[in-house]
Amino acid sequence: MDEAERLELGFRTRRSVLGDAHVDRSIANTTEHTAEFQELITRYAWGTIWTRPAIDHTTRRLMVLSMMIALNRNEEFRLHVRAALEQGVAPDLIKEVILQAAIYCGVPAANAAFHDFGLELAAMK
Q1: Pick the CATH number of 56-125 from 3.30.70.100, 1.10.287.470, 1.20.1290.10, 3.40.50.300
Q2: Predicted pLDDT at 103
């Protein structure tokens, strides 16, 4: 697969995981300073890593959520929670990830994640 095909696959995958609205906003907000970064993450994160067949998208989503909790990346956590819920990931699975993170990442990190999770659940109603 050449780089252009990898980029196209990346955009398709990114849209399937995060939704068209988010990707459209990211593209619209791209500047001359961020264009290469957007291409890099689309090709590598979305076109190379997210498309590997050994791990399904639900598992990848849950892994990303746990990593965002561990790194205290609340905005990115909320983005991925929203996308997971919209794609039908059961709220109970997300709750289990947060509970697991409470043990390995600490109670403050899990507390913040439960807060953000609740905001996203409420927004979906």
Answers
A1: 1.20.1290.10
A2: 95
